Structure prediction request, 236 residues.
Amino acid sequence: MTLQWTAVAFFLYAEIAVNLILCIPFISAKRWRLVFSLRIWNWLSPYWNKCFFTMIMVLIVLFLDAVREVHKYSGHEPMQDAKVNPNVYDHLHMKLFRAQRNLYISGFSLFLWLIMRRVVTLLNQVAATLEDISDLQTRMEDGAKTAKQQQDDNLMLKQALLNEEKSMSAKNHQLKLEVEKLVKLLKVAEEAVSRSHSEVEAMKRQAKGLSQEYDRLLTEHHQLQNLQSAAEKKDQ
Prediction:
């Protein structure tokens, strides 16, 4: 195996190992996102796309070269020559085997390289989605707590309003009774005042009659005095 295909084979083994590690079930997407958020990845991120597309181009070139080699050693003319010379036949099959091996190595390397990029992207997306779900769940819980608190406050306010309404109703009823009582007392007072006015009028009439009687008696008294004085003068 030449140096370039040895490097491609080690690259394939490394891809297999990395993809297996990325697919370990007990390592969550959040932990992988923490790993991908390290400073070294932030430092390598400007070069990552260039490296990714460069490796794709290299692997495509190697894959096409392997396809060419397979087509070269599996053609009709090399097989005709191999049938004439048995050593050439063995050597041709060895070349064909190496070309097919290189084809599989480069093809799987290219495939796993694309798969690894996709797995890393999906892990980041899953981690971001989980964080969004966690934030949304936290917001929903906070909203539910706020709604429950508002509902409790509304119930307390409604109960307070009902109690206040009952208290106002009781006070209004009590005030109504007091007003009715005052109205009755006012009627009694008006009746007492009316009776007092009647008694005063009666006393005025009585006083007027007494005054008239007093005047009459006083007049009669004066008349009697005048008669008495006249009689005494006659006697003298």
